[in-house]
Amino acid sequence: MCGIVGYTGSQEAAPIMLDGLRRLEYRGYDSAGIVISGDGGLRLCKAKGYVENLSNLIGGGALMKGGTGIGHTRWATHGKPSDENAHPHISYGGKIAIVHNGIIENYAKLRDMLIAKGVQFKSETDTEVACNLIQYFYDGDILKAVSEAALRLEGSYALGIVCEDFPDTLLAVRKESPLVLGVGKDGNFLASDVAAILQHTRDVYYLDDDEIAVVTPRSIKFYAAGLVETEKELSRVDWDISAAEKGGYEHFMFKEIMEQPEAVRKTLSPRIKDGRVLLDDVRFDPDYLKSLSRIYIVGCGSAYHVGVVAKYNLEKLLRIPVEACLASEFRYASPLVGDKTLVICISQSGMTADTIAAMRESKRLGARVLSIVNVVGSVIANESDDVIYTWAGPEIAVATTKAYSTQLAVTYLIGLYMADILGTITKDEYDALVRGLLELPSKLEKILSSKEQVQYLASIYFNKENIFFIGRNIDYALTLESSLKLKEISYIHSDAYAAGELKHGTISLIEDGTLVIAMASYTQLIDKTVSNIVEVKSRGAEILTLTTESGVASVAHTSDNIITIPDTHEVLLPSLAVVPMQLFSYYVALMRGCSIDKPRNLAKSVTVE
Ligand code: G6P
């Protein structure tokens, strides 16, 4: 969603911000803006649409001279995408400008209060309310004004602030929305995401909730509640900068698809020693595990789809009821959560608002929360009882690929680890699964090496307007992710169905030429799935089937085209089967000329409910 980047120092700020904003584009946005603070006061430029529009308006930065400024990409919440609603917002007195990520929940009340005092508003945003509130408290002491305003703001926010009276100073305050401060050679930085400033510095401070930072070209000072100055520890970001760049690939999504063998290897190999799964990250008491009556797996989007695969696998391995829940539904559904419940939260960003809310509700109800997270130090990682990092590296494309694969890999580790303690797995089965896990990266490489076949299939089907995915058991779980991947980047309507369910309604939509993609990797149920394929084929559907090398013979006579994946342990099949489907979505979107890394209306990290 929204992105923030700020700079104060001896360089020109505007080009630095434009570059930072481009690096934040992946988060999803619909308008962009920049404020420069200097001897001439505050100068603002904002524009609906891509950062490029903004850049053209200010001559690539050359038309906005000055060494201090803040830029922002906005993903509309309060008020439509427009020049007026874009950030930065400037206060009624003209002295203060702010950018904001998050949502001010009590903005209407505060707005009414300010209107009653005679304040006039120019936009529909909650951000302008925060800006005017700071101006309202401003009497020459900007730190105090920010602190007073922050005390009255409810909701989640990361604010970047400049004040005309302090031309080389940036202020930042946050609550439940991330902000980092970067220490540079010729100036200091402010950003919502390290990717925006990594080309300038790796030395960063992570701002905590309710803390205020005051940034000048030579210093960064921190103030906790009550404006007590505090010391913070400098952190070193150890990402390789190329990890957040395209490195010769046309799209981040394709690069991240290709990175999966290595990403999965990094997730798995440090946690498997001498044929045993070692989860140093979690501390489960065997008695606690044995007392468990239920496991909930909670997430949004693709993370939820990982949960659906894991539900099938964990129930099989652990013999405990496992439920996969959409985080947005979970906490309002009176979940049966207590001290005998384990809640597994899955989130790439660790920042998804609904998943955070589900995690907090679970803890409040007495459950232990284990999270599977990619972004180190994120809210979900910090607040969970245990966290297993996926170590996938930065994921930039909105459509997730390597995060999905590494999350899935972690669920296998959890399954093996717990089944071993619970005694619900035989030694042979355990060993076979570990062997399968260790072979996953090379099998993923094999699938990727035949990507041209998927590209060819995409060229046959890219102009379809309705596509149905069917599958049973873990293949059904996979249809959910495959269908989501396709629709989010290609804008083709598609739906995912449990293969046996189609005849209870949806089969009425099948007509001559409808494409049905059948996921038939799960050998145990392949004949059942073939029966369902026959049902749609005899009503005119074209059939593209995904199966394993050993499954080809079973589906050959009913399929128009077949995608083959290597055989593996049945629990692990989704890890292999998802990759051709990611490639298929990618190539279809490419052939349709879609904006692959930045699909319309979508955001990488959804920080609002
Ligand atoms: C957004 C992204 C999805 C992602 C979901 C959950 O909708 O576009 O790709 O699966 O959020 O994100 P999380 O960071 O919690 O995994």
Mind explaining what this structure looks like?
This protein is 36% helix and 24% strand. The protein is built from 19 helices and 27 strands. The two termini are 12 Å apart. The mean pLDDT is 93. The structure holds 6-O-phosphono-alpha-D-glucopyranose. The site of 6-O-phosphono-alpha-D-glucopyranose has 15 residues, from helix 9.
Entry summary:
The chain is of the alpha/beta class.
Q: What is the approximate shape?
A: globular
Can you summarize the main beta sheet? 8 strands, antiparallel
Intertermini distance: 12 Å
- pLDDT average, as an integer? 93
CATH topology of the largest domain: Glutamine Phosphoribosylpyrophosphate, subunit 1, domain 1
Order of strands across the main sheet: 3-2-4-1-10-9-11-15
Catalogue the unreliable spans: none
Number of domains as seen in the coordinates: 3
Strand residue content? 15-25%
Number of DSSP-assigned strands: 27
User: Helices and strands: which structural class?
Assistant: alpha/beta
List the ligand species.
6-O-phosphono-alpha-D-glucopyranose
CATH class bucket of the largest domain: Alpha Beta
CATH architecture classification of the largest domain: 4-Layer Sandwich
**Residues in helices, as a percent range:** 25-40%
